[in-house]
Amino acid sequence: MKNLFFKYSFFGLVLLMSPKIEAQNKAEKTDELSIYRTTPLKTHDLIHTKLEVSFDYGKRYLYGKEWITLKPHFYETDSLKLDAKGMDFKEIAIIDGKKSIPLQYKYDNEELSIALNRTYKSTEKYTIYINYTAKPAELKSKAGESITNSNGLYFINPDGKGDKPTQIWTQGETEASSCWFPTIDKPNQKTTSEIAITVEAKYTTLSNGKLTSQKVNKDGTRTDIWKMEQPNAPYLFMMAVGDFKIYKDSYNGKEVSYYLEPKYAPYAKQIFYKTPDMMNFYSKMLGVEYPWAKYAQIVVKDYFGGAMENTSATVHGEYVQKTERELLDDNQESTIAHELFHQWFGDYVTAESWSNLTMNESFATFGEVLWHGHDAGQDGEDRSRYEKLQNYLRSQKNGDSPILARFHYNNADDMFDNISYSKGSIILYAMKNQMGDEAFFKGLNHYLTTNAYKSGEPHQLRLSMEEVTGKDWLPYFDQWYYNAGSPILDVTYKYANGKIIITISQSQDSVVQTFTLPLKVDFYVNGTKIRKDILITKREQSFSFDLPSKPEFVDLDPDKILVGEVNVDKKTAVDYLFQYKNAPSYYNRIEAIKFASKDRSQESQLILLEGLKDPQEDLRVLSIKAIDLNEKQTKDQVLKTLLDIAKNDKKTIARANAIVKLASTGDASYKALMEESIKEQSYNVIAAGITGLTKYAPAEADKALASLDDDTQKHVTPLMKRFSSQK
Prior knowledge:
It comes from Flavobacterium humidisoli. The protein contains 20 helices and 31 strands. By secondary structure, it is α+β, with helices and mostly antiparallel strands. The strands form 8 sheets. The protein has an 8-stranded mixed beta sheet, with no helix packed on it. Strands 18-19-20-22-21 form a 5-stranded mixed beta sheet. A 4-stranded antiparallel beta sheet has the order 11-12-17-14, with no helix packed on it. A hairpin with a 4-residue loop joins strand 3 (44-56) and strand 4.
């Protein structure tokens, strides 16, 4: 699931949701958090789930018939417990050949306890028939901070009033599928499925697996049957019903389809066009072909979870759905990549418990990073990784943060945070760096193939890595998966008598572990880069190296794999300028620009001037916002570069910020630029043009805004407020 913990905006990194570390640390002393969250006990194994469902839109009911096939996991048993929330039952029976034998049961509105007709052994399968009514709208939702509703099945505008489309869709994570069909609603269960959905004939349906038949009924309805021949977890079951237009693509002979509201259908290919390339990239990288019969992506109304990686059928919130004009300014490529990577890590192999959510979400977030590297090069990969690091660092205090594999939590929803997502992803990246790409991806392949269609936890990943490399990776996993926090390194450099001494102190809170950190150091000496290895094992440690002369610059952790912070003592603008020009990783460039944004020295102005030409648009935007237009020595060059960005930059957000910056000069010669910008297609550029025009002729700006069509005004007005608030 892609929960919107943060939104990356070129107006800055805005944290919409992050773990409340202090509150959580305090809460960990309560009784609830003293409970060790074990992996759910397997008394039975799900084998096959067959459903026939129809809907009452007026009552918001689902009418269901279910045939659920199970077997005892190991010990023989004469009873069965199923998760079933807020349902009415008409009949519960066991199917014995052609006979249907009624069964006794007890029900507490959440759990269905069934007395079987006899004792069954682990070698015996049996099938239970259940005729039921699900009433999800009447349930009291157990909402969390990230998954804000847990009713499982949702009727959107069922009365058909107004312009909002009428839809039905499901959201099963974490354990909400049992709001619309009885099951063992645990992530360590897997079952094949067949779902027959009866709807008004005008509607389109989507579910897991293949659409195997469509039957038109005499009452104006149609029954679609979707079959999932490979086992998957109950929380990954999905249905969607509504007026959707389907764009069909393909990958390696498999259908790849995009379901959108009719008005967005013309833009389906533009929104999702990279999907087949992503499928090819991930399949080859992992050595495991995309494992399902098809891949569909559907955009639904009023979706609250960001997006959800249901097996073979991802659900997206409507923010993914954009027109051609909106796509000029922004897309949701990261979300699309994230949910697709889940088809391997989360669906093909599923976290065996919510305590082990890292096996789903850390990997999907890691998958985003890898895709950006493949699609946009190392700089794009490093930018994505830097964003994950910053998200994590906002979620810690003095190095203190929750454990990645957490077995104590109040609610499973607590696990969906920047620890499971961002921190976990950069821990995987650091492992890849230490292990080497070939060994790392061979280890992932071993994990996936060994645990295919089953569930997994970090220890199984560790064993796969050890099988491949022959090395004991328990220290790494113990430090990063089963202990909390992250390091804060305070660093000083001293050069004398042909030696440089690096002193490193781990200054994270005393309650946080002392880390073992294998890192590299680059010394820039007389135009040459000299690389050395160090191993940090203590709270304070010094390292000495012979160098022919004092280095112009020292780059600790040049690959920037550290899951933590580095603070270098007495680092100056001169150091940052050298860093930007000579050690130009994305990390080094953005850190130099961030320093220069707060510093008024000549060297910082030169950093920002370089930043205006940076290949990454977010760094150009940071530089545009911070650069001093009144610095005499650079003024002419700055204005020339800004004008070029305003007219020609390929990224509309950079153009827009340059337009607003030029308007801040008050120079009348730029008024024509503002007027021309208002004629553009990009909402960003139009908003910047009107915002800039208010500096010259407020009445003309008001008139220009009023002349725009309603759709353009709707998009431009909030953007103008943002641009106006910029200093």
